[in-house]
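seq as requested:
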Amino acid sequence: MKFTCLQENLAKGLSIVGKAISVRAPLPILSNVLINAEDGRLKLSAFNMETGISTYVGASVETEGSITIPARILSEFVSLLSPGTVTGELKDSVLHLSSGGTKSKFVGMAASDYPELPQMSKKLQVLELAPQKFSSAITAVGFSAALDDSRPILGGILLNYDKGVLTAVSADGFRLSEKTLKVGKKEAAFNVVVPAKTLIEVVRLLGGSDGPIKFALDANDNLALFEADGILISTRIIDGAFPDYKKLIPGETSLSAEFSVSELLEAVKLTNVFAKEMNSAISLTFDPEGMIYLSSTAQESGENNSQVAAKITGEKLEMAFNAKFLLDFLNNANGERVSFSTNGNMLPGLLKVVGDEDYLHIIMPLRVQN
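struct tokens:
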């Protein structure tokens, strides 16, 4: 194997596939990046048995071949090289890299020992997604996915497709987000849960693609695959049934309010300065006279009281919420105004961005301490 490429392109490619490198690899070879010089291009791949990422680097290939090299040291080394041309040559399982006055050797492991990588087979049903719209949908729900592994299904995002509509849903037991988007093409319906961390990485890597993101499911290997701009990301589908979240969405409600996103965001941030000492619990009082009063008290530090103008229908109601959860929603609310509705201070609160009927967020209240 012998190739020549630009340092910046090689560094970028190694950075992309590095997200799929195992920190604690069950097999030593999974700590390596697979390098294939083929068809006049350099293909870089990484796979941790759950997630796989492959990408191409423009290169001049003199001799084809393949090898796996420890990813961490190779990536760090290439990133420190000065911009310019990098030449790589494989000799007896040792990759020789040279750039300018620098020459180095990397001891590798045979590519034949690397696990078989998932592929976007032509036999799979492919759904084409608009990068910006799909990215917005995942961003709008991703923050509601659980961060711990106690219930793996809640660490994923539900992707439900039916009759040209893709619905993305996430929930962690305390909040829930749902976003729908029309994708046009009518294929067979499906309902899968994909790891939220992987989908966020898909958005980061493929969200700015020039063409559509190709999304396919491989039922035989229980995989979800995403491809665009020469980058292929595969991930295991999470086994299990996603909770029946529809029953949590309030129908008719006894209280409703509409307010400015930016004004409430500022008020929650200020109130949270004191609330951090009290598990981020803040109190919101909805006054039909047209005001939301926010308050938090920390015995050792002091207290804060803020108010935000709002259009409120219903009787006066006091509720308590986790400030961080409110901030997560408000920071991701893509609009100027938000509506809130509920049936009681211990019942779920429904949040919607005014003018966006395709997005909703549900947040569970905390018990009010009298």
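The CA atoms of residues 65 and 112 lie 11 Å apart.
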